[in-house]
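Appendix B, Record 12. Input sequence as logged:
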Amino acid sequence: MSYDLSHLLSRHLELCGYQRKDVPIIQPADLFLTRAGDTIIERLFSFERHGRLFALRPEFTSAATRQYALEGHSTSQRWYFSGPIFEDLSDNPFQNQRPSVGAELLNAVGTNADFEIIRAAMGGIELSQLDGWHLVIGHAALQRHLLSKIGLDHHQYRMLLNHRELLKTQGAAAVEAKLREQISAEISSPEAFSAEESDASTQHMLDVLLDSTQYGSTMGSRTREDIAQRILSKRKRSHGLDLLLEGLNVFAKWTALRGKPTDIFAAIAQLLDAGDSVGQGYVEAWNQLVDLLEASGVPSERIILQPNLARNWEYYTGIVFGVEVNDVYVAAGGRYDDLATLVNDDATAVPAVGFSYYVDRLLDLLPTPAPSSSIVVQTQKQWISAGQEVTDFLREHDIPTRLAFDRQNTTSDKLLVTVVAENAVQYRNDIFAIDQLESLLNALGS
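Logged structural output:
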């Protein structure tokens, strides 16, 4: 069943101009650990062999990016992948292997490339005849830009992202409490600051203390260095927390956004400064993408913008999207321009965008098809050549067909083609010449 759907989706991607590419199931584990979220890391099937750590592939994108560099490509490549991926699901060990089909457009930049990959993904969804779907689009680059304008560094940005589920379920107050606790723990750690930064700031504190006291090397039971370090820690904790809480305020507003494109673009405009040309550029390109999708036939009422759309993989650098039905995602992907530099030594950046179908989830939402029936070509042994010719012809036209020497009781007239002569067959009450089987094909389809 999953094979039939995987074959359908794979064939669709071929017709979209993508070439099948195979990558090994077993890969170096660090290939997937570079930008995996906590959920992926916890579920990674890994093992050690000859002193090296390997893993069963949990997805295709990282391996595709690595393969692109290893093969020395310098032009755009359109690849699709089909096969099993693996997750260590301790609560459901019989679901550790799942079918996946996906596509990667490598060395392609801009809105047109984003449109191409999203439209290819939607074509497969439409082909499957899935009902009730919505296309949800977010923007990782705009999110990162918005928070970096506040002054958050990468570590602080990651801290906010790690609490997004808590933000959705329990609100900003719960996240603030967690951040205060985390900052306090980090500041108390001796490794909290770089040696250079700490030494310089500590010397400044010492200078202040020397100006204000005539004591020697100690003050009570503590050295002046101890006191200066304590003051420094308090100052850094206050500054870092203030930035995080300012970022949390913006992030909470950002995370709450979900709705029609016109409404969300208007809300985003309120979060951006009028002179923020970079942010405005992201919004303009995003708007153009939505216009292209609608013009290509994606119904506007099925497009939802969710700027903070979350993905388990943290290598996305631009547009992020998914196809959902009742909060269940059946396909997802996005842009990942920096991944090549993370998974390949000395590799240059390769702009790329891709997606994957979650075939098992898609199957769960589709009606179970009736068992397929096959045509039976009945022949006598002296006419086996004619019978085989008819059988091969029907199979070439994607009609399941088997050759039999005697009629079975379960074979209805609707499924029976009988060889009645060396050069003729009968279907129901009509006779068809062996050299005119197109007429038989039309009769079978009627």
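Residues 2-149+273-365 form a domain with the BirA Bifunctional Protein; domain 2 fold (CATH 3.30.930.10).
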